[in-house]
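[agent] plan:
  1. take the single chain provided in the ticket
  2. run structure prediction with default settings
  3. attach structure tokens to the ticket
  4. add a short note for the reviewer (M.T.)
[agent] executing step 1
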Amino acid sequence: MKCLIGLGNPGAAYAKTRHNVGFMAIDQIAREWGIDVSQKKCKALIGEGNVRGTKVWLIKPQTYMNLSGESLRAFLDYYKIELENITVLYDDLDTPFGKFRLRYQGGAGGHNGIKSIIQHTGTQVFNRIRIGISRPAPGYNIADYVLSPFSKEEFQSLPEVLEQIQKAVKYDLEHTFEQTMAAFNKS
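[agent] step 2 finished; step 3 output follows
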């Protein structure tokens, strides 16, 4: 079993912002795998399917970014799922746009959604895919930056990035997360 939780903010106002790239990744995966992510449960939109013989859950918390851990905790408790079966997909300022990094532990790095997940799970050890959004120019407010839309050029190349992430999570269905990290963490 694999559970993919993409972080973002609900609502049309946030749909195309950098902070919602986790939702965008879940939407790409859902389209590719034919999974409908519309069931309202555990403070989230949830979809389930079967991919290559593996049960897959796709989750988009509807609690807003800073409370993402509430939704994940509710999901884990309701379905009695171990945290080792979860992979969190989210935006990362310290990864260049167009890149993504797989990690299985670490701090929040200033990301409030990850802070909430650490708070509600009691651990920093969980699989994650950090999707690069790059840092803004010096002097630009971080909150304004992450809540702003991707540039036209970024938005045009985003589908290729999301497709690569989809390939990584598909690979992870039949391999360990460490093997997936080795295969997809490139410089």
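[agent] step 4 note for reviewer: Strands lie at 2-6, 39-41, 44-51, 54-61, 86-92, 100-105, 125-132.
[agent] ticket updated
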